[in-house]
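Hi Y.,

Following your request, here is the sequence exactly as I used it, all 185 residues.
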Amino acid sequence: MNIFKILAATLLTLYFGVAIGSSESEKTTIGDAVMAVTSTSPAFEAVKKKLGKWDGQMTQSLNGDVFDVSYEWRLTSGGNTITETIVEDGVEMLTTYSDQDGELIIKHYCALGTEPVFKVSDMTASAMSISFDAKKSSLHADHHSFVTEMKWTMNSKDENSMIFENKVTLDGELTTNRAVLKRSL
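Below is the corresponding structure, written out as tokens. Let me know if you'd prefer a different format.
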């Protein structure tokens, strides 16, 4: 059984190493047009560490419900954007991560019908927090329900395990959610 775990871990490492490495070292072309090579922020590079599919369970503070979740991060647009496809309790959403003037900009397309924009509020070697950027969005807690903060904390002993937490304003009330995730691909 251990040989299968070692083989799986080796294949995942090779897959993600090639996927990440090829986007950085090869120029992207569409037809005869060569796309510009851009540099990325440290925050963008931190999000790239999550590339792949993650599964787990989320607990809502609102009522204590626990449900299945999955998150899949993919590098797109010639390596300039990361998309995160989110499925929480069967409901699919999308978040995009891209740099603008050296700063990571995060846009979340939420099942609540809102599209909050975020900026990085804190980043360490093992965690990144983002918070709602009121300057880039017209949402207001008195009038809208939307995600206000997100945080990912990587397990320092297992790079394929992390905690995801978020805060959501629902009808003016702040709620929190917490998910324990494992990388599955």
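The first strand starts at residue 29 and ends at 30.

Thanks again,
Q.
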